[in-house]
Amino acid sequence: SMDSTLHYIHNDSDLSTNSSFSPEEERKSKVQDVVPQALLDQYLSMTDPSRAQTVDTEIAKHCAYSLPGVALTLGRQNWHCLKDTYETLASDMQWKVRRTLAFSIHELAVILGDQLTAGDLVPVFNGFLKDLDEVRIGVLKHLHDFLKLLHVDKRREYLYQLQEFLVTDNSRNWRFRAELAEQLILLLDLYSARDIYDYLRPIAFSLCADKVSSVRWISYKLVSEMVKKLYMASTSTFVIDLMNELVEKFCRCHKWSGRQTFVFICQTISEDDCLPMDQFA
Question: What gap in Å lies between CA 160 and CA 105, rounded to an integer?
Fold first, then answer.
């Protein structure tokens, strides 16, 4: 009966009519038999604004912190009990609450599986991508962990948004760009050679010219891994085009820093055996 309830609540035709549930139906949608119902009701009431005034001003943050654990305990078949609470927390006025959810959304995706993730978590994830940097860093740190759980078509949609991570509220926030470079290295395994060349290459080149050396060093590794990935792909033209661009953009750069970048990238490619030596030469 739990499965049928779950199907009923997540039926596409019902998504727009959830708000028309009667109070009795609303109450039934929160019923489960894994833990004492009174305990769950107490947990769900933590999002009540009056609790923040009478119990603890950070009670919503505590609720958000515990949510993946509660979801794991109840199981995905009882996600309907937590869905409304999760959406309430995801739109909380306090950024600390949203940040807490952003850091754990990839864990929740594993618990819920691909169907519920696509329907209920992806919209929240998309909202966090446009949030404050304090919230965005949560999804950025686990970008690969979340995207690898999505279907290929859905995953490709995010290629267009990766460029937005280069823009931050504070340009001095270099750790944000360093984290982006780290994540892009992991993301190389999720995308095709063409997608890497068309979408990830421009971001990598931009990061290689960053003002902060820590960002640049990670970016050299990113470019060398990109060369390796493209070389191993069946279409060899991409790696030739990439290497020609490295020569044109950095080796022949009129600034010494650009030429130095070329040397460092060559060093990384050589040390990590990203290319056969004859190809490297």
Answer: 21
Give the pLDDT confidence of 175-234 residue by residue, as tens digits. Answer: 999 999 999 999 999 999 999 999 999 999 999 999 999 999 999 999 999 999 999 987
- 23-150 architecture in CATH? Alpha Horseshoe (1.25)
Domain ranges of the chain: 23-150
Q: Number of helices (H) and strands (E), helices first, in the chain? A: 18, 0
Exposed e or buried b per residue across 213-225, where buried means at least 16 C-beta atoms within 10 angstroms of its C-beta: eebbbbbbbbbbb
Confidence class for position 21, pLDDT limits 50, 70, 90: low
Of 227, 225, 224, 221, whose CA–CA distance to 240 is shortest? 227
Q: What's the pTM value of the predicted model, to 2 decimals?
A: 0.82
User: How far, in Å, are 10, 39, 135, 263 from residue 120 at the CA level?
Assistant: 9, 24, 18, 47
The tokens for 39 are 């305990």
